[in-house]
Amino acid sequence: DNEVSPVIQSFVHNTVARAMRDPVGRRDHALHARVATNITSDSAAAAPFPTSLTKSRQPPDVMLNENLNIGSCWSMSGPSGQVGIVLPHLVYPTFFSIDHVPWEITDVVGEAPRSVIVWGVVDGEINMLAMQGVLQDHNSPIPIPPGRSSPPIPGPFDHYVPLASFEYDVYGSSPVQTFAVYPAITNARMYFGIFVVEIVDNWGAPSTCIYRVQVHGDIVSML
After folding, report:
1. Angle 177-169-8 from CA coordinates, rounded to 5°
2. Within 10 Å of residue 105's Cβ, how many Cβ atoms?
3. How many CB atoms within 10 Å of residue 32?
4. What does the pLDDT average to over 159-164?
């Protein structure tokens, strides 16, 4: 008897529905954006015999589309690293979202990102003045990592500012989780076109799998 029981059918249906549901309700400016390879970590080596539950070698920009099929992620070497994202336009960022497949159907839960810092490349006189004001405002401080002023791979850029830091909960109620930009950044109306998503650590695996990164905010119409 090869029939699947109704209980299993229901479980699979509900789990897949959770994976495909997008509760964010905000425009994703990173959708089909460009990965900046000069500020992006190395990819993990491909599995020697990929199956439906093991990842073939995917390019980093796979995380900038809506495909959440199992294995359709960028596999990064090690538990920490970063990816640079270049948007097609400048935005005032307000939120960031991280997507992963539900832990119930992933083959390696530990590969999900855990602690994350999002950095913005600061460019332009207006932004530089705004950043100085933000960093000097002790009433609304930005939690800058000790001894850090940039992500681990700064590339050709001289000035960064942390925009958000958070923990992605792989066991949370939704596989799509949204996190706010620091109020000091949004209040200063700082705008950005280049972001770095730094994975500080993951949930315990020797490599990290990033399914999707979303950038939300308002398009800069004029400066």
Report:
1. 90
2. 15
3. 11
4. 96
